[in-house]
């Protein structure tokens, strides 16, 4: 009787293992399948950290039980081995580089310096300004930047800046630099008036070599306030309302995935036609298992996978370690000391990396 119960339990667990293995495989497919074909895999990929760790737990369980079922999670995890390093980096000790040999880059979605009091703290803008001054980057790339008296180039410690506003001209993208900006431009990537419809670049000479810094903020995840309320507190008693809410979330996510697929093609075109090595940074609103990441991955190097430590979580609200902010760079450069700074001053964590020219 006990043996029969154990066999039934193993069968039930294996059934769930198969489901989570399929979800993990689905998240791999998001890297290769454009959202214009289907957004199913893109949505599944948002749960990659969960699917990975559940399969890892199954692998450990079957291994302890000496069951051949262990091959399912092991094979599925192995098929996506390249994604593991995009989720977690073991890294090492911080590498010390002379200040005149490294270029420190920082990217941060500052969410309008908390203009609408998303965080119940009136000192957020002051804290952001102080954080930037403490980090002391050579080049700073901000998304959702709003011109204020506190957050000017001078107050942040920079000699040069390029601000490319959207909509009503009050907020948008900004690049600040300690080195002269030789040229800057905003590139429209969609023919509408939406907030995320452009990116900017600035050409900066460092150590006698020009670098094109591209600052991006791709289409937001697309969820509305009611969607977040549903995710945090689902009304399981009202089935009709729940189903309607889930469909709304899936629809909003799908629209955003398709927008980012279109937007990233303009960014790729800029990278390919750049006369200079490129540093691409900003808020991509997409995970490393996405098609958007795939389009950049085979052209530039990811500073996190090159020099990060631990989980690269950059989206504050997510209960799982979602990484949607990046610092990419051309192969002419080498990244050291990638960090995500765990300060909840926005809905994104700021990120930094030290860059140096490859010998």
TrEMBL record:
Domain Endonuclease/exonuclease/phosphatase: 106-348
Gene Ontology cellular component annotations, sorted alphabetically: membrane
Keywords of this entry: Hydrolase, Membrane, Transmembrane, Transmembrane helix
GO biological process: DNA repair; GPI anchor biosynthetic process
UniProt cross-references to PROSITE patterns, sorted A to Z: AP_NUCLEASE_F1_1 (PS00726)
Membrane spanning stretches: 12-33, 39-63, 70-88
Stored InterPro entries: AP_endonuclease_F1_BS, Endo/exonu/phosph_ase_sf, Endo/exonuclease/phosphatase, GPI-anchor_lipid_remodeler
UniProt-listed SUPFAM superfamilies: DNase I-like
One Pfam family named in its UniProt record: Exo_endo_phos
Source organism, top-level taxon: Bacteria
MF GO annotations: DNA binding; endonuclease activity; hydrolase activity
PANTHER family per the UniProt record, alphabetical: CALCOFLUOR WHITE HYPERSENSITIVE PROTEIN PRECURSOR, ENDONUCLEASE_EXONUCLEASE_PHOSPHATASE DOMAIN-CONTAINING PROTEIN
Name of the featured protein: Metal-dependent hydrolase
Source organism (scientific name): Owenweeksia hongkongensis (strain DSM 17368 / CIP 108786 / JCM 12287 / NRRL B-23963 / UST20020801)
Lineage summary: Bacteria, Pseudomonadati, Bacteroidota, Flavobacteriia, Flavobacteriales
């Amino acid at each position: 009787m006990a043996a029969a119960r154990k066999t039934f339990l193993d069968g039930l667990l294996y059934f769930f293992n198969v489901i989570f293995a399929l979800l993990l495989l689905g998240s791999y497919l998001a890297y290769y399948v454009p959202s214009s074909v289907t957004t199913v895999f893109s949505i599944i990929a948002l749960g990659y950290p969960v699917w990975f760790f559940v399969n890892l737990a199954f692998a450990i369980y079957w291994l302890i039980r000496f069951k051949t079922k262990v091959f399912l999670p092991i094979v599925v995890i192995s098929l996506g081995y390249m994604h593991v390093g995009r989720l977690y980096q073991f890294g090492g000790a911080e590498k010390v580089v002379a200040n005149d040999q490294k270029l420190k880059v920082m990217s941060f979605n500052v969410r309008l310096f908390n203009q609408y009091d998303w965080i119940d703290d009136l000192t957020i803008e002051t804290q952001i300004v102080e954080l930037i001054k403490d980090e002391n980057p050579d080049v700073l790339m901000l998304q959702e930047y709003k011109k204020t008296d506190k957050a000017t180039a001078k107050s942040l410690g920079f000699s040069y800046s390029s601000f490319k506003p959207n909509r009503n001209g009050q907020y948008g993208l900004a690049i600040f630099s300690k080195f002269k900006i030789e040229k800057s431009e905003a590139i429209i990537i969609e023919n509408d008036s939406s907030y995320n419809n452009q990116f900017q670049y600035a050409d900066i000479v460092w150590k006698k070599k020009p670098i094109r810094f591209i600052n991006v903020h791709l289409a937001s995840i697309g969820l509305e306030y009611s969607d977040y309320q549903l995710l945090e507190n689902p009304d399981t008693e009202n089935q009709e309302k729940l189903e309607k809410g889930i469909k709304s979330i899936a629809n909003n996510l799908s629209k955003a995935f398709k927008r980012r697929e279109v937007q990233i093609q303009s960014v790729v075109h800029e990278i390919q036609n750049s006369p200079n090595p490129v540093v691409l940074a900003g808020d991509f609103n997409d995970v490393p298992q996405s098609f958007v990441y795939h389009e950049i991955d085979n052209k530039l190097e990811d500073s996190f996978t090159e020099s990060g430590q631990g989980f690269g979580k950059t989206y504050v609200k997510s209960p799982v370690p979602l990484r949607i902010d990046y610092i990419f760079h051309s192969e002419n450069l080498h990244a050291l000391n990638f960090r995500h700074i765990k300060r909840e001053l926005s809905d994104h964590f700021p990120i930094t990396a030290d860059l140096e020219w490859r010998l």
